[in-house]
Write a sequence for this structure.
């Protein structure tokens, strides 16, 4: 039989060979150092970061591929379609993922690229450019929204309509307000009431509501008499307006919609039934089959039957992303999996949810990124 010394030597050799590899791949490994004042989640393999009051981008290795020398931007958007929209000396332009200027800083304002075109502004007038910087829709509108489903909302002389990617007017500019197309329909306002049109401009749901939100999963939130309900794409009422409208959200996610009535939260299914009773102090949308809810002052996670997957014991919780959820306990943030197992210990002062395999985390006043 092998001697004890031999077994010890083999165990030591295995540890020396494999433990460093395991450590490199361990959940929570720091991939971007803690040195940034602010950050955004990873998008398209890059993350927006702020250093010394200037913005740039890092990649997953922590390398600053776009130096932190640019001014503030709409940080909620990040990079889009391989191009980053940033500002320099008050002018907007676009950089590619190597940091090279793709479209010069020649504009007073801009939206990120969407469906191959970006809205840009000069002297308070808006139009659209392609990725070569060519002006494909004349800069002549008072305001525009990015393209969605092949159409963009544009405003001229206080009236809204829609154009296609050639600049051709598809929906006449006659509405008081509008929003982008979603699932083939767009909200429009006429005489202070909201309804929906299709991509030909036909009014498929009359302008009769006080407010509406775009369609998601075939249903849309509407407000009538200052109460929220839901309709389908024919305009049929799925859930009569009786819920509070004074909260963000209102869209169906994962087949469920979070609603609030008299300070209590619960969920409707797609038939408009209260599938999960309105008993919670707060609730988030379902993601990856689970929802973060607060009950009796503590946060936990329920499935779509309303069953707690493990005891509610957290001070705060975020929705699941990439298979992990951020939770706060003892004043610090960490991450758990969907069984409640602690995957990354509660160490951090603040966090962002995992996206693309990485999560932003804050420690001692500075932000960095960890890997899943």
């Amino acid at each position: 039989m092998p001697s004890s010394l031999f077994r010890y030597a083999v165990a030591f050799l295995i540890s020396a060979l494999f433990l460093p590899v395991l450590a490199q791949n361990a959940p929570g490994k720091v991939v971007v150092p803690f040195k940034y004042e602010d950050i955004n989640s990873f998008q398209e393999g890059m993350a927006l970061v702020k250093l010394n009051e200037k913005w740039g981008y890092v990649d997953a290795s922590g390398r600053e591929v776009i130096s932190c020398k640019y001014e503030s931007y709409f940080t909620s958007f990040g990079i889009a379609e391989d191009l980053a929209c940033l500002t320099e000396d008050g002018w907007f332009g676009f950089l590619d993922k190597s940091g090279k200027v793709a479209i010069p800083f020649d504009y007073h304002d801009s939206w990120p690229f969407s469906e191959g075109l970006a809205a840009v502004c000069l002297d308070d007038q808006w139009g659209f450019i392609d990725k070569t910087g060519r002006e494909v829709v004349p800069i002549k509108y008072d305001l525009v929204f990015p393209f969605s489903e092949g159409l963009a909302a544009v405003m001229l002389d206080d009236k809204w309509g829609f154009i296609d990617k050639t600049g051709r007017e598809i929906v006449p500019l006659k509405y008081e307000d509008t929003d982008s197309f979603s699932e083939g329909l767009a909200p429009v306002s006429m005489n202070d009431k909201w309804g929906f049109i299709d991509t030909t401009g036909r009014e498929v749901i009359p302008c009769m509501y006080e407010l509406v939100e775009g369609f998601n999963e075939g249903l849309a939130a509407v407000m009538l008499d200052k109460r929220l309900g839901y309709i389908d794409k024919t305009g049929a009422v799925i859930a009569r307006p009786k819920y509070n409208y004074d909260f963000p959200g209102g869209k169906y996610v994962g087949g469920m919609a979070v609603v609030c009535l008299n300070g209590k939260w619960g969920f409707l299914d797609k038939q408009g039934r209260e599938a999960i009773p309105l008993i919670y102090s707060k609730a988030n949308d379902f993601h990856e089959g689970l929802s973060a809810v607060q009950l009796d002052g503590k946060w936990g996670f329920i499935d779509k039957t309303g069953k707690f997957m493990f005891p509610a014991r957290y001070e705060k919780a975020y929705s699941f992303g990439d298979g992990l959820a951020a939770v706060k306990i003892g004043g610090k943030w960490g991450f758990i999996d969907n069984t409640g197992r602690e995957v990354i210990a509660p160490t951090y002062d603040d966090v962002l949810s995992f996206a693309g395999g990485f999560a932003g985390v804050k420690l001692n006043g500075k932000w960095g990124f960890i890997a899943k």
Observations:
- The two ends are 42 Å apart (CA to CA).
- The chain has one helix and 37 strands.
- Residues 1-24 have pLDDT under 50 and may be disordered.
- The first helix runs from residue 4 to 24.
